[in-house]
Amino acid sequence: MPGENLSRDEARERAALLSVDGYDVSLDVRSAVGDRDAGSEAPRTFRSVTTIRFRCAEPGATSFADLIAPSVTAVSLNGKDLDPSEVFDGSRIVLEDLAADNELTVDAQCAYSRTGEGLHRFVDPEDGEVYLYTQYEPADSRRVFAGFEQPDLKAPFRFEVRAPEGWTVWSNGAGELADGTWRFAETKPISTYITCVVAGPYHYVTDSYARTFDDGTTLEVPLGAMCRKALAPHFDAEDVFLVTKQGLDFFHDHFDYPYPFGKYDQAFVPEYNLGAMENPGMVTFREEFIFRGKVTRTSYEGRANVILHEMAHMWFGDLVTMVWWDDLWLKESFADFMGTFASVGATRFKDAWITFANRRKAWAYRADQLPSTHPITADIRDLQDAKLNFDGITYAKGASVLKQLVAYVGQDAFLEGARRYFKRHAYGNTRLGDLLSVLEETSGRDMSAWARSWLQTAGVNSLTPQVLLDPEGRVSELAVVQEAAESHPELRPHRVAVGLYRRGAGGELARYARAEVDVDGPRTVVAELAGAEAPELVLVNDDDLTYCKTRFDETSLATLRVALGDLTDPLARALCWSALWNMTRDALLPAREFIGLVLEFAHRESDIGVLQMLHAWAESALTNYAAPKWRAQGAELLRRGTLDQLYAAEHGSEHQLAMARFFARVTDEPGLELLTGLLDGTAAIEGLDVDQELRWVFLEPLAAHGVVDESALAAELARDDTATGRRHQVRCLAARPSEAVKAQAWAQVVESDALSNALVEATIAGFAQSNQRELLAPYAEKYFAAIERVWSERSIQIGMDVVRGLFPALQHSQATLDAADAWLAAHEDAAPALRRLVLEARDDLARGLRGQACDAAHE
Hints:
By secondary structure, the chain is α+β, with helices and mostly antiparallel strands. 43% of the residues lie in helices and 20% in strands. The chain has an eight-stranded mixed β-sheet with strand order 5-4-7-2-1-10-13-12. A five-stranded mixed β-sheet has the order 15-16-17-19-18, with helices on one face. The chain is globular. The two termini are 54 Å apart. The relative contact order is 0.06.
C-alpha cells in the first residue's frame, strides 16, 4: 500500500507538527492458542487497543497514525467516533482537524506474524507449546499497535496483556499479573521500534546485579534469561549472566551514567530474523545462541559480543536515539565497536580485536566495494532504505571508523565525549553534529574534516608500502602509498602503525620495528623507520588502527608465501590473511594460490575464530573465484588436505571439530563414505564426538550428493524431532540432486507463503549447492521473471531473503551477468531497495568472473 513505506519527508513533517505524551497499549493474545475455524483463510488475529495522548503545534491540521492490520473495529479521536472504513486504508489512519491536545483510541484486529515481523507466533513441534515475541525494527510496531512509527516521536509506554492461562508475559518494564491481565510499569520515553512483548510458557531463570557508585548510591538490576522449554537442558544461563554482569560493570565504569531502564531481561526466541534486538529492559536474541552441541570458543565469543553490543545500545540508541535512520550509525556503529571493546576489557575473550579484524571488517570491506556502498551517515529516503542499511557499512565499517577515531582523538577524550553526550541528550534524539560537538570539546580537535572524510564519503582506501634500501641493506626510505577506487576517489587521513618483520634464528617471523604515522594524501614517508634493518615483511596498518585494505610489496608477499605461519603475533597473522583474501577478491591473487596458503598454514592458527574464517574463505575461493577447469582439482586438494589435518588435530580439540565441519563442507565423492561411517558408527575418529548437530552437518553433503534419501532424513528427524531438527531436515531435503526436489523447493519459497521465515531460510540454504550448477541453471530465467512480483506481494524480510538467496550466483557466466543487466535496464522504475539487492548480487557475480579469469591466467 502506498502509505506503508513512510518517507523521511513525511516523518519530518509529522515530527514538526506532533509531540507525544504517552501510549496505553492493551493486547489480548488468548487467541494464540487453540484451533482456528475450519477452512478459514483469514490470518489468525489478536485484539489490540491503543490510546495515544499527543499535542499538535497547529490546531486544525491533518496528520496520520500508522497501523498495519487486517481490520479496525473502532477509531475515536478526542471523544468523536470515526468510521474506520473512511479513515483507515490498511496502513494509515487519517487524523483531521487536530486539537492542541489530543487523544486517539484505536481498536483493531492485528495479525500474528510468521515472518518474524511484528508479533511472531511459533508452535514448537516438540511439545505443541506456543510462543510469542515481538520484533519491530525499523517499523513493525505498527503491526501490533497504532502509533507514530518514527524514532524521534518518543513517549512513555504502558502495556497490558491478556494471555492464555499459565503463560508468563514480559515487556520493557516490570510486570505483574492481576485479574487475568499482565500490567507493566510505564517506560521512560522511548521510540516505538524498541518496545517489546514476549509471552508464552518460556523457561525463565533469574539473577541480579548490584553496583555501588562513588557517590554512595546503589543500583540494583533484576536479571532474567529465557528460552523455549524444549531448549532448557541446553541453556547455559549462568554464562549469559556472567557476561551480562561483566558488561554492566564495564559500561558503568566507562559511561558514568547508571543503567536507566530498571530490569534487564534477555529472551532467546525461535525463528528470529536478526542476531538480537536492543529493546530496553527486554533484549531479544535468536535462539541459535543456545548451543545444542559442542561448539568452538568462537561461538561463545560471538554470543558474548552480541550480548555486549545490545547492552551498549541501552545508552547508544535507547537512551539517546537518532532523529531518523540517516544517523543509524549513531547507535549501530557504536554498539558494534563497544561489543568488541567491552569483550576485551571485561570478559575472558581478550583476543576479540583479532576476531573483529578478521571477521567484522571482512563484512565491511565487501559492502564498501558494492555499487550500493554509501557513507556511514547515509541518505535514507524511506523505510525500505532503512531496512537495507542494517549492513556492513553501518555496523562493521562504522565500528572500524570509530576505532580509528579513538586512535585519532585518544581513548580518554572519546569516552569523555560519550559521557557528555549521554548526559546532554538523555531520552532525546540526536544528529551527527550533536556527537561531533562533544568530541570537539573533549579532544580539542576540529572534527568537521574528519567527519567529512570518514562519515560522509564512501569507499575503502588501499595502503601499500614502498621500501628503498641503501647500499648497506638498510631502509633509506619507507613510504605508504594510498589509493582509492575511481568511483570513490576520497583519500582519507589514516592514523596507522607500520610494522617491520624479520625471521629470527629459530625461523620465527617477528616484529623488530614499529612507527605510528598520520597517512594523508597519495604518499606519506615514514621518517621514523629510515635506517632500520631491511625488512622481510612490511605490515601497513599493524595493530589494525585504521580501516583500509592492506597491500604488500613484492618482498613482503614472497615472505608470506613461505613463512606466513611463522608470524608470532596472532593479530598480525589475522591482518595478513585478511589482506590476502582481499587480494583474492580483487583478482590480484589467484584463488588457487590463496587455497594453497590455507592448506599450508591455516592449521597452525592458534586463534580458532581465524581458522574458521579461513575455512569459509577457502570454500568461497573454490566456489566463486577458482577457474572452472581447476575447480575439481582444487576440491580434491581441499578434501585431502583437510582430511589429513582432521586426523592430525589434537583429539577432542576445537581444531578437530572445526576441521570436521570444514571437511563435510568441501568433501566430494571419495569423502562421503567416511561421513556415512561416522553417522552409522562403522567409522570413528578418535576424540571426535558426533553429536546431533554434527550429524546434521554431515547429512547435508550426503543429501546433496544423493547418498541419503527422504526416508533417511525422516529417520534422522525422528531422532531429533525438534524445531531445530526440522529446520535442518528442510535444508537437507532441499539439497537433494533432483529436478523434482528443486521444483518443489522453488514453489514452496517463491510461489507460496505457507512456510515460516525460518523454513524459508532453511529451504533457500539447501536449494543452491555448488555441485549442482547444471541442475540449477534453469532457475536463472525463473528468478528474474519472479522477483518483482515476490517483492510486491511478500513482506520485506521474506522479499530480501528470496532476492538475495535465490540469485543465480552459481551460474558463473557472462550470460547470467547479461541477464542481470537486462533485468536492471528493464526495471529502472522498480523499488529502489529491490534494485539495490539485484545490483549487489550482480556485482558479486562480476567480481567472481574477474577472479576466475585471474585464476585461469595461472593455469
